[in-house]
Design a protein that fits this description.
The structure is a homodimer.
Chain A: H1 3-6, E1 12-19, H2 22-32, H3 36-39, H4 41-45, H5 56-80, E2 93-99, E3 108-120, E4 127-137, E5 143-154
């Protein structure tokens, strides 16, 4: 049985937790999103947010970082148990990304992913499509970020 | 008249063009998306893509970089002409992001944004919501990336 066929709809995995530090928020935002409330601590105090917050793209890319770390752990565990290791392909994109609450410097965001649907690819029978609902939750239990992702997973070589 | 009221639906702006170098692709992916086809040139040759490609999150964050550069130029021009400078707030999120084609090392992506709709905020009369359709196109004229964004723009102080 391939990894794709083995995946269960409804399975939820916590991927890990990330502390968004002031320095990391500023470093990412200087490269990709230099709005004052992402790069300037003093100006951020006078913004509608009241303090320095992470770029939404930083929050999103960090979800990917923790997804990959979980995949690496999972692959190692599967290899140790003699199970087939999944072969993930590209993502055609995603839907309905929401930045629901600011991520402040000092916040710790816990990322999770839940399998929502799986579909065989019509045009590429060796691949399946995996749809997931992904979240980021802060240390107060508030949902700060969510989106629906899609990724190709190989069904057979 | 505020910047929000002045904005015309249908206005399209080219934001700029970005060369995705091998080193930059690998540097971003090492931090946020260390899949082999984003970080390992040799392994990428054996992947379904056939060569090193940028993380989709890198392609997306770079759109933001060029949006901000265009905003900075536009603000300076407006100040020089004595026009009000827009005050952008947060984005509640976006929809239907598609990674349509790979972005290879050496590709140059031209980013653009087009105003699609503007809505007064019901709950916050001092803010309006601006909806835009955003694209990335490679040097061959192929659309590689698009999504629909939403951002708050201040209507009055």
């Amino acid at each position: 049985m391939s990894y794709f066929d083995e995946m269960q709809v409804g399975t939820r995995r916590v991927l890990g937790s990330h502390l968004f530090t002031r320095d990391e928020i500023i470093a990412f935002a200087r490269n990709y999103d230099p709005q004052t409330f992402h790069v300037d601590e003093e100006a951020a105090k006078r913004s509608p947010f009241g303090a320095l917050i992470a770029s939404g793209w930083h929050t999103a890319a960090t979800w990917m970082k923790y997804l990959l770390e979980e995949r690496t752990r999972d692959d190692a565990e599967r290899r140790a148990r003699g199970l087939p290791v999944p072969d993930f392909g590209p993502s055609p994109g995603f839907k309905n990304l929401r930045w629901l609450k600011p991520v402040y410097a000092g916040d710790t965001i816990t990322y999770a992913t839940e399998v929502r649907e799986k579909l065989p690819s019509k045009s590429k029978p060796e691949w399946g499509l995996l749809m997931a609902y992904n979240t980021g939750t802060n240390q107060h239990g508030d949902l700060v970020f969510d989106f629906e992702s899609t990724v190709f997973v190989r069904r057979r070589a």
